[in-house]
Amino acid sequence: MGKIIVGKTTDIPPGKMQKVAADGKEVLVINIDGNFYAMNDTCTHAGASLSEGSLEGHVVTCGWHGAKFDCKTGNLSAFPAKIKDLQSYKVTVESGNIFLEA
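Request: output the structure for the sequence above.
Response:
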């Protein structure tokens, strides 16, 4: 993937998340108090878009069946069954632009 611009910091206010396309992948970018995190947008349980779920603290909850993922790491934090973690991405901010790195 390299380093790809995915938006501006003003596009995603604190406490919000947004799905973006990066190198043919759907990625969820999250802003927590001005710190940006990114992970795959597709839930590993049933394929739902996590951008349609909810954000509480640093935990993203899938809107379909309630799987919870830590947006800082992409790791599953709560679900009744064992499902795969999500890939997370390094995020950098330069001159108000948000970049993903793989």
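The first strand starts at residue 3 and ends at 8.
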